Amino acid sequence: MAPAYHRELFKAGNPAVKLIERILPCYQSYFDKFDRLGGSIYTHDPSAISYVINPDLFTTKSAPVFVETIGRCMGQTVADWKHQWDDRPKVKICVDVDSEGVLALIKERLTKEL
Length: 114
What we know:
This protein is α+β, with helices and mostly antiparallel strands.
């Protein structure tokens, strides 16, 4: 979400958008510090919710995954694209996103009148 997108959201002036406007500087500061996004932010949680509402906006592939819990790579998720881990269940892994569609869905949901 870029600053221009935020400004469009804020025009709605409803309670949800006002809350986002209040907490947004914290997210912007974090992403500017680590990723130098210039006021833009990644939208991990809203994207997950968007997937539940409209999975057609996402391209997924199935494979087993492993999350490293120790060592230098702690926290990294590894997909077994070669299907070598028979003991792990397959999960859906997002490999592409219709970004414009997701942003349109989020905007539509946050700005529609109740």
